[in-house]
Amino acid sequence: MKQFKYGFLFFMLFLSACSEPQSFEFKGLQDVQLDKLTMGKNKIRANIKYFNPNPFSLVLKQIDCKVLLNNGNFTVLKLDTNFTIPANKEFLIPAQLEFQMSDLVKNSMELLLNKPVKLNIKGNATLSKGIFTKTVPIEYETTQKLNLGAALSGMK
Known about the structure:
Blueprint (H helix, E strand, L loop, with lengths): L1 H16 L7 E12 L4 E11 L6 E12 L2 E8 L3 E3 L4 E11 H5 L2 H5 L3 E14 L2 E14 L2 H6 L3
């Protein structure tokens, strides 16, 4: 019976020591490149920069988000590749985003003039630490310049 008490006490201490992961902080987009430009579907490659405020590393298993540009639907972001996220550091997640030209045209003047646009990312991320896995909500809003001219000049 004494072992059970110590085992239960150890288990309770272990659970209290494992803190809930905090959400990542969105830091913006880097290296935006337009891969394809047509009147239909288009592709953008970019690195999404985040900061992990947690004092421990995590594994990002999946992301499923909607990306809004100036409050209008723009694209979806889906990743299902494991990324190891370092503790207390900024990190980059490579992303390939598909969008319709009509969604970009609504904001074309702001983008061509390199004016700031409002980006919203809403969805979920699945994180793991050891054997524990948790789905956490993602909800970021930022205003950022997306230099469409530079992205166009980087097209292949």
